[in-house]
Structure formats: structure tokens, C-alpha cells
Amino acid sequence: MKIKVINQSKHTLPEYQTPLAAGLDLRANIDEPVSLGPLERKLIGTGLFIELPAGYEAQIRPRSGLAFKYGLSVLNTPGTVDADYRGEVKVLLVNLSSETFVVQDGERIAQMVIAKHEQIQWDATENLSETERGAGGYGSTGKS
């Protein structure tokens, strides 16, 4: 699949890090380092502008290494970039650790996965079909 992109960053276009990777690593495109204190959140630009085809979204997700080593995550994970959005792709980072994290220009801060999706039409009804699970919610399938 080809995706139109405008790269206004100082960095090369995102690439898959391995042949079977689902996500492309997004890099911070900032003029100076950005400090994120404990529980602080900031919007970090990537300098990328994309045009997705109808029926697709770009999901912005945390990088597992940053999450594990430093407690850095994407706050609205996965963030969605809709097919009709033409602004800069930005990443809402949050520091969930007890120590300050400094984002450097060019640092890989998140990953982007392109995913197909459907739009629905509601079918209002009075009843839903019965299932074994029924209305069992949070944690209900793990009970004996």
C-alpha cells in the first residue's frame, strides 16, 4: 500500500525496523529537548503529514522499549489519525514514571500502525441474541 506523505521534519521517513514489523517508528521533530516530569504529558510533533485512503486509520501506539525502560507511553493509546485529517501527525506522550524523561530531537517516540476499519449503521432493536457469556463483563471469563 502506498501512502502519500509530506515530510517537513529534519529526519528520514519512518521505516519498519524488521521485515515483519507492524509498526513504523515515529521520530520527535523538535527544536530543543523536551522534558517530561512525572505524570506530565506533552504533544510532540513528528513533522509528518499523511493522506490515508478511505477505510484506513493510522494508530499511534507506545514503543515497548520506552514504556518498559522509562515508563513513557502514549496517553490516548492507540491514538487515531483519521483518513480525512491533513494536519501534522503528533504524539501525546505521558511520563508514567517517577523520574523526568527528556525527549531528544530525532528520538523514536512512538510507532504508527496503518489499520483497515469499517463504518457502521445502527440497527435499533429491543433484543440481542443470547450467548454463553451474556452480560458478564470485566473479569467475568476468568471465574470458575
Cα distance spanning the termini: 46 Å
User: What is the name of the CATH superfamily?
Assistant: Deoxyuridine triphosphatase (dUTPase)
Query: Average pLDDT across residues?
Result: 95
Largest sheet geometry: 4 strands, antiparallel
- Radius of gyration, Cα only, in angstroms? 19 Å
Task: Provide the helix percentage.
Answer: under 10%
The CATH class label is Mainly Beta
Give the overall form.
globular
What does this structure look like?
The protein has one helix at 64-70, and strands spanning 4-7, 24-27, 34-36, 41-51, 56-61, 72-74, 79-81, 88-95, 101-103, 108-116. With 144 residues, it is mostly beta strands. It has a single domain (4-118), classed as Deoxyuridine triphosphatase (dUTPase) (Deoxyuridine 5'-Triphosphate Nucleotidohydrolase, Chain A).
Structure described in brief:
The protein contains one helix and ten strands; from the N terminus they run βββββαβββββ. It is mostly beta strands. It has one domain (4-118): Deoxyuridine 5'-Triphosphate Nucleotidohydrolase, Chain A (Distorted Sandwich).
What is the secondary structure topology, with strand pairs?
Elements: E1 4-7, E2 24-27, E3 34-36, E4 41-51, E5 56-61, H1 64-70, E6 72-74, E7 79-81, E8 88-95, E9 101-103, E10 108-116
Antiparallel strand pairs: 1-4, 2-10, 3-9, 4-8, 5-7, 5-10, 6-8
